Amino acid sequence: MDFTFENELNDKIALVTGGSKGAGKAIADRLQKAGATVIITARNKPENETNGIHFLSADLSKPDGTQKVVDEIVEKFGRLDILINNMGGSETPGGGFAVLSDEDWESTFQTNLLAPVRLDRGFLPGMIERREGVIIHIASIQAKLPLYDSTLPYAAAKAALVNYSKSLSQEVAPNGVRVLTVSPGWIMTTASSRMMERIAERSGGTTEQATNSVMKALGGIPFGRPAWPEEVAELVGFLVSPRAAYLTGTEYVIDGGTIPTI
């Protein structure tokens, strides 16, 4: 069969967690355009729904939430071919180690590490039985470049996710299942744009100056700008496609050159 952008994921069923906005929404849209049946999860229903994309409301930071998603997808669709563990984030206070409670650490690890682990555990048996499937873990360059004063638990959780993803890939590759990690740098989502506007208002400068100040705080982005969500989505779209059939166990960094080391 000759694969094209429009049909290479025909007959595939894909789940994108945190798929209602930002990079998650871009990934969901990209997979649907390639022919996949796409399901997204989030706590709240998206403001702007995309026709043909199925929505499941769930709090994946709780075991009951992940089990609900597994059960409903298996019941309604019979299987899952592509799992994009995109949900993540940091809501802990800045200020370094001294201000962080056990609850801050636990909630961050539930969202950024244990939710993907539970979903993998729920869907992998079916993938292994069929001897096909792709799992993508969306991590972060903070796994290698942690910001100790603002997102210490998040960075630690993402580092654990990268390690877990590599180990899992080695376990399931003989069963025909591919596991990969995508680690973005700063992505210019709608939320990021609003943050730049707020910084500009407080400082009396422009949004361009605010963006440059944040890039400087990150150590600089050689490409000169953050990534667009669609650029991350394009990488994910390739990795889950038949064109990437021999790729597994690898971390793909998409950061505009932010990480300064090999």
From TrEMBL:
Per the UniProt record, the source organism is: Rhabdobacter roseus
Q: Which family does it belong to?
A: Belongs to the short-chain dehydrogenases/reductases (SDR) family.
The entry's protein name is: NAD(P)-dependent dehydrogenase (Short-subunit alcohol dehydrogenase family)
Name the InterPro entries for this protein: NAD(P)-bd_dom_sf, Sc_DH/Rdtase_CS, SDR_fam
Annotated coiled-coil segments of the chain: none
Key words, A-Z: Oxidoreductase
Per the record, the domain of life is Bacteria
Q: Does the keyword Oxidoreductase apply?
A: yes
What GO molecular function terms would the record report? Answer: oxidoreductase activity, acting on the CH-OH group of donors, NAD or NADP as acceptor
